[in-house]
Specification:
Number of strands: 10
CATH topology of the largest domain: Dehydroquinate synthase-like, alpha domain
Order of helices and strands: EHEHHEHEHEEEEEEHHHHHHHHH
CATH architecture of the largest domain: Up-down Bundle
CATH superfamily of the largest domain: Dehydroquinate synthase-like - alpha domain
Number of domains: 2
Low-confidence stretches: none
CATH class of the largest domain: Mainly Alpha
Number of helices: 14
Length: about 400
């Protein structure tokens, strides 16, 4: 019987690429007729660059507020504080400039405005609950009436989905919040703004994008369109990331990386399930404070090794896309990561041995653990992978 499936396009109207971000945002703001723009930005961009001055100048009177205190892994307190400021500013559009935590922060502001969330504890009503057996409880969320434009400065590519990760710091757990219209109205890809991103962050989030593409190609629910875009994503990232390492000023290589990250995100739209690299990675962020990109640097090669007995042909496609046909995918991916100067063990990213069991238990509440190509049904199996990565 022929393969069947569904491809669900996101509610993203446009992707603007290659133009200066301030010009692109001003053009997009005029196109959607926004009058009051609230900006969420990386603190580093605000303190150390002229990016906000440029954006303020391009928006003029439409620039009504700025928040630059969203922390790593998007803590609840910060996003609710930002949402309250945006509400006070009567904002009709959110613009984000920054990495994945800032992008998720923008989605959370959109959620808070739509659902009248004014205190962090109120978010308990809205996160997606995942049980040990993988079953999911999705709460009803109001449809957002304020949308956003994202200007990403890293390559984790969360702007191309409608899921936000937000950390409950009291419980030390990252939670998921999902609505179709949490996806931005427009995404602006400007390679020049990424020159301000620390090299380790740009490269490690590039590995995060590699992780998206690899786990899509190796998924138990593969999709023909996604196989094509994921393969090209790996080709672009596989050549672009080493070129940026060799010459950080190479804007063409940086745009290749941004395009590769964009293409790496199509799996979510087609219902392509991911695996344990993403599942464990989410927990490493919220529980052990490991940066997004570094979670993939550490986990992806080891998850490939763990899964190799059940999806060899798919892993062969990964190696071929990276120009390493005939070699084990774990080796090809691991060599790419090493060549970028990124860490390869849990110890190297600050995880302590006494945290491994709690990470394994918490991982069972992540949806991607339950769709790993080699079935995972207990924390002991997660711990086996963690021990491989130790």
């Amino acid at each position: 019987m022929p393969q069947s499936g569904v491809f669900q396009y996101l509610s993203i109207d446009r992707v603007r690429y290659g133009a200066p971000f301030d010009e692109a945002v001003a053009s997009e703001t005029a196109q959607v007729d926004a009058k009051r723009v609230f900006v969420l930005a990386s603190g580093t961009l605000v303190r150390e660059t002229d990016c906000i001055d440029r954006l303020r100048a391009s928006l003029g009177e439409r620039f009504v507020g700025l928040y630059d205190k969203v922390g790593a892994h998007t803590p609840r307190d910060g996003v609710v504080e930002a949402a309250n400021l945006a509400r006070q500013s009567d904002a009709d559009l959110i613009v984000t400039l920054g990495g994945g935590s800032v992008t998720d922060g923008g989605k959370m502001i959109v959620l808070c405005l739509a659902n009248d969330v004014r205190d962090p504890t109120e978010l308990d009503r809205y996160f997606t609950r995942i049980s040990n057996d993988g079953s999911t409880e999705q709460p009803q969320l109001a449809e957002p009436n304020v949308r956003m434009i994202c200007v990403p400065t890293t390559l984790s590519a969360g702007e191309f989905n409608f899921t936000a990760g937000c950390t409950d710091t009291a419980r030390e757990v990252k939670q998921l919040f999902r609505h179709q219209r949490h996806a931005p109205q427009c995404i602006v890809l400007d390679p020049a703004i990424t020159l301000h991103t620390p090299e380790w962050l740009f490269l490690s989030t590039g590995v995060r994008a590699v992780d998206h593409a690899v786990e899509d190609l190796c998924s138990r629910d593969a999709h023909p369109f996604v196989d094509g875009t994921a393969t090209h994503a790996l080709k672009l990232l596989g050549r672009g990331l080493p070129r940026v390492t060799a010459d950080p000023a190479d804007l063409e290589a940086r745009l290749d990386c941004q395009t590769g990250a964009w293409l790496s995100m199509n799996g979510a739209l087609a219902g392509v399930t991911k695996g344990a690299s993403h599942g464990i990675g989410h927990v490493l962020g919220g529980t052990a404070n490991v940066p997004h990109g570094h979670t993939s640097c550490v986990m992806l090669p080891n998850v490939l090794r763990y899964n190799s007995a059940v999806n060899t042909d798919q892993q062969d496609a990964v190696s071929a896309a990276l120009g390493r046909a005939g070699e084990a995918a774990a080796v090809a991916v691991g060599d790419l990561i090493t060549g970028l100067g990124q860490p390869g063990t849990l110890r190297a990213v600050g995880v302590k041995s006494e945290q491994l069991d709690i990470i394994a238990r918490n991982a069972m509440h992540d949806r991607w653990i339950h769709t790993n190509p080699r079935p995972i049904t207990s924390p002991d199996q997660v711990r086996e992978i963690l021990d491989m990565a130790w």
